[in-house]
Amino acid sequence: MKQAVIRALESGAFRHEMRTSYDEKNLLGYGEVTVSQVVKLIKDSTGTEYSCSPLHGDPSYDCHLLKTGGWYVKFYFADPHTVFISVHRMKLS
């Protein structure tokens, strides 16, 4: 999973889940974080920070979730693209 999402980011084979208005939960989609920053987050992550479950709304896809370094990255693979749902800082409680 890790190498596949990094390849998608580095090659530009990704898109963003469509939203009706600005959503602070996908900072990559709005250009507030760069592809390089997201690649570094993923590369620096460990397996203990990762989970996978059926995608809400279409359980035929696996939804990947990575919580690392205070960041939340959520995406799924929909050939030929990787689709990012969320890339944002987690709120501290």
Secondary-structure topology with pairs:
Layout: H1 2-11, E1 14-16, H2 35-44, E2 50-55, E3 58-68, E4 71-78, E5 81-89
Parallel strand pairs: 1-5
Antiparallel strand pairs: 2-3, 3-4, 4-5
Helix pairs in contact: 1-2
Protein described:
The chain has 93 residues and is an alpha+beta fold. The protein contains two helices and five strands. The chain has helices spanning 2-11, 35-44, and strands spanning 14-16, 50-55, 58-68, 71-78, 81-89. The chain has a five-stranded mixed β-sheet with strand order 1-5-4-3-2. Helix 1 runs antiparallel to helix 2. The protein starts with a helix and ends with a strand. The model has no long low-confidence stretch (mean pLDDT 91).
Q: So what's the overall shape?
A: globular
**Biggest beta sheet attributes:** 5 strands, mixed
Mean pLDDT comes to: 91
Q: Strand percentage, roughly?
A: 35-45%
Strand order of the largest sheet: 1-5-4-3-2
Order of helices and strands: HEHEEEE
Measured on Cα atoms, how large is the radius of gyration?
A: 12 Å
Spatial gap, N to C terminus: 29 Å
Which descriptors apply to this entry?
five-stranded mixed beta sheet; 93 residues; 5 strands; alpha+beta
Brief account:
The protein is α+β, with helices and mostly antiparallel strands.
